[in-house]
Structure formats: structure tokens, C-alpha cells
Amino acid sequence: MSFRASIPIRFGHEDHAGLVYFPRFLHFFHCAFEDFFAAQGRPYKQVLDDDGLGWPTVHVEVDYKSPLRFGDRFDIDVWVHELGHKSATFAYRGSCAGRLVADARITVACVDLRVFEAIPIPPRYRRMFEAHAEPPGDL
Fold first, then answer.
1. How far apart are the two ends of the chain, measured CA to CA in Å?
2. What is the reported pLDDT for 138?
């Protein structure tokens, strides 16, 4: 099962050419990542502050397929593509009105924020991730 986030494209997201500037996509994917946690009943701030866990990005791959512009709505399907012992790779498929915009794979490590060291993914999060290991049905 995948999770879907939706982000409105605002005037400030565009560059001089009138297109969403490519680094913004990484920000949008991270917004969807935070929304994923919130939708599971664990807002990302609680993950960081209460659980002392961070999920820093350690690898990124993005394929850009078509542009986004001011006024568009960027729908992002999120699922766990690969689950390791201390890391997880999230897949992101972004579309606008049914048009594929970008695909990404972003690997995050599970880090104990008190000592800034990678640790095994705790059972609570492993279960959460395993429950979202299926891509959306339209792939």
C-alpha cells in the first residue's frame, strides 16, 4: 500500500523560466516523507523530539519527466521500495493531473540523534514501513 501526499505549486516555487526549479522536488519529496509519518499517527517532529530518531538522506536518484508550473497540484505517491537493517529506500512517484512528473528513490538511514550513529530500525517503524511496501496500483 502506498501513501499519497498532495502539494500545491506556488509562485515562489518557479524559476525565471516559469518552471519549478529542480531542487524544489527534493523539498517536495521530503514534505511527502513528513506527511507519511503524520498519516501513520506519528508526526515527524515527535519522531525527532520524542523518539530521538533522525532519518537523514544518504542517497538520492531522481528522474524528471515533465515540468510543473504555478497553479499545478503535485500528487506524490510514497512507498517503501527497500527495507534494510539500518536504512530504508523510499520510492516517490510524482504526477500532476495524471501526467507523470518525476520518479525518485531516496535512501534514509535510521540515526540515534543523541549520538549521531546509525542504529537498527526500531520495530515500530519497521512495521510501519513494511505496511507501505506496495507501490500504487497504477504502476
1. 12
2. 66
Decide: helix, strand or coil at residue 139: coil
Q: Give the number of other CB atoms < 10 A from CB of residue 66.
A: 12
Check residue 14 and report its DSSP letter.
B
Nearest CA among 124, 130, 110 for reference residue 56: 110
Q: Which residues contact 24 (CB under 8 A, 6 or more apart)?
A: 13
CA distances from 94 to 40, 42, 132 (A): 20, 23, 17
Report which of 64, 66, 134 is spatially closest to residue 98, judged by C-alpha positions.
Answer: 66
Residue 88: strand pairing partners: 83, 108
CATH class of 3-130: alpha beta
Question: What does the block give as the cell for 129?
Answer: 514501513
Measured CA to CA, the distance from residue 1 to residue 90 in angstroms comes to 13
The confidence band for 134, taking pLDDT boundaries of 50, 70 and 90, is confident
pLDDT tens track for 17-62: 999 999 999 999 999 999 999 999 999 999 999 999 999 999 999 9
CA 38 to chain centre: 12
